[in-house]
Amino acid sequence: MAEKLDETPQEKPRAGKIWVLLVAVLILVVAGDITLRAVTYFRTTGSRGSAAGRATTADAAGEKSKKLEVKSTLSLDTFLVNLADKEDVRFVKAQFQLGMTEENEELAKNPVVLAATRDTIISLLSSKTSDQIMTPQGKDKLREEIRNRVNAILPKGKVSEVFIVDFVVQL
Q1: What is the SS3 assignment for 100?
Q2: pTM exceeds 0.85, yes or no
Q3: Which end of the chain has the lower number of beta carbons within 10 A, N or C?
């Protein structure tokens, strides 16, 4: 009987330690989940507040209507271009599809228009640094600049959207 009494006190502290460990792990998991949700929330809304949320909704509606204007896409071959970084030699590999307001069968078959379009985009990409095009805002600005420059040279139809299909920057 003395043996049975000695076993019981040793098992209880061990079981208590397991429960403490399980509760600590559960608290860490819940805290991590709350932190992740908070970081995600503040990244999407930033410190702009509720007015920004309404502006974001309006921007999303504007983007949706812009994408509805796309009647066809013009797929461009992959671009491999040196960037304008001064401290290091860096390059970007990118592929774009242009969302056109009209059918593009004539444009896709016209080598002069395709060459001019590629030249315009290569000139634009080679003038950028990696810092300028790595951020989401930089990519949005790049889309806008491509759209404006290509629209300036197109004889017929307009680019309403620039889709980035592939995008790699060598660092």
Answers
A1: strand
A2: no
A3: N
